[in-house]
Amino acid sequence: RKHNISDATFYLWRKKYAGMDVSDARRLKALEDENAKLKKLLAESMLDVDALKAALNQKY
């Protein structure tokens, strides 16, 4: 509570980052950020494909 986080958050972070060096934690964060960007790109491309399919179906 010293840093205004809940006990649940503290234990979740402790479980996730236990035994890691700072460099490992930074690398994990970088990989998570990259993964989020890739998921966003995939979702956007899937929306584009759906829009193109809908446009093709309306033409014919």
Automatic annotation (TrEMBL):
Superkingdom of the source species: Bacteria
Gene Ontology biological-process entries: DNA transposition
A GO molecular-function annotation: transposase activity
InterPro entries: Homeodomain-like_sf (IPR009057), Transposase_8 (IPR002514), Transposase_8_domain (IPR052546)
Family, per entry: Belongs to the transposase 8 family.
Protein name from the UniProt record: Transposase
Lineage: Bacteria, Pseudomonadati, Pseudomonadota, Gammaproteobacteria, Vibrionales
